[in-house]
TrEMBL record:
Organismal lineage: Bacteria, Bacillati, Actinomycetota, Actinomycetes, Micrococcales
Chain ranges of the AB hydrolase-1 domain: 30-146
Protein name (database record): Pimeloyl-ACP methyl ester carboxylesterase
Superkingdom as given in the UniProt entry: Bacteria
Pfam families from the UniProt entry: Abhydrolase_1 (PF00561), Abhydrolase_4 (PF08386)
Limits of the Peptidase S33 tripeptidyl aminopeptidase-like C-terminal domain: 200-265
InterPro entries: AB_hydrolase, AB_hydrolase_1, AB_hydrolase_fold, Pept_S33_TAP-like_C
MF (Gene Ontology): catalytic activity
Length: 270
């Protein structure tokens, strides 16, 4: 594991570069993969993205602040969206990468939309999986279960996971349970509180995005499906792939999602 430093506040951001396969073009554009809430860069190996994408291009994975092996401050002010974007920029600058494809899941996609607005020249393309250009008050209650954030603050991660299982009617799968349990719960709650107050990317900003955009959302993730349709309305050149039967947590795991990503990237020739 390597680390980059966000110069805005000194946060240490964990990242890993997986080199391209021997048959990849020497000038293949790298792709950056950014995880969702309470997860880490480890998901991309578990979901098969590293194995599928690295033969064709270098793959960069990272842990956003408050997640994985990166710095996990407890202050809500440390989770402003411009600092999340700065985490990604710090990794790219450390690696000397001027321009990349960007793929984000959930939180990673939210960061990607802001990154695309503030640094459009650094993105060859933007891929949003179960993402939205804004979070908004109550977002985590809607994604997880009513009272999710309050339960995290009151009962810690054990209480949060128990509440999630009660609300869903089935156990959280072992991999997700382990990933969530590995978090600093105070830092995670601070992040959740802070991001609910962040201003969303506007329709005018979406309409002005110059790079190709792929949106993927599941039919059993209605809030993020509506968000994807909203982005498509503001940016008609964006491509929308709807995955039948996919939930919010299930969308990145669906073979159809990864197939759509590979098909999208294959069009670029770099």
């Amino acid at each position: 594991m390597d680390y980059a430093i966000n110069p805005a506040d000194g946060a240490r951001i964990a990242y890993r570069m997986t080199p391209a396969g021997a048959e990849a073009a020497p000038d293949a554009t790298p792709i950056v993969l950014v995880h969702g809430t309470a997860l880490s860069q480890a998901i991309w190996r578990g979901f098969g993205y590293l194995r599928a994408l690295s033969p064709d291009r270098p793959v960069v994975t990272l842990d956003l602040r408050g997640h994985g092996r990166s710095s996990a401050p407890h202050e809500q002010t440390a989770y402003a969206m411009d600092l999340f974007v700065g985490d990604v920029v710090a990794v790219l600058d450390t690696l000397g990468l001027d321009r990349v494809h960007y793929l984000g899941y959930s939180l990673g996609a939210r960061v990607g939309f802001s990154f695309a607005v503030s640094h459009p020249h650094r993105l060859r393309s933007l891929i949003s999986i179960a993402g939205a250009p804004g979070t908004g008050h109550g977002a985590f209650d809607r994604v997880f279960f009513p009272g999710a954030l309050d339960e995290l603050e009151r009962g810690g991660m054990a209480g949060f996971l128990a509440g999630w299982e009660r609300a869903s009617g089935h156990p959280v799968d072992p991999a997700t349970h382990a990933a969530f349990s590995a978090n600093d719960e105070v830092a995670l709650a601070a992040y959740m509180r802070a991001t609910q107050r962040d201003s969303r990317v506007t329709d005018a900003q979406l309409a002005a995005l110059p790079m190709p955009v792929l949106l993927v959302a599941g039919t059993r993730d209605p809030e993020r499906l509506r968000a994807a349709e909203h982005v498509r309305a503001a940016l008609p050149t964006a491509e929308l792939v709807v995955v039948e039967g996919a939930t919010h947590s299930g969308t990145p795991r669906e073979p159809e999602t990864l197939a759509a990503v590979r098909k999208f990237l294959a069009r670029f020739g770099d």
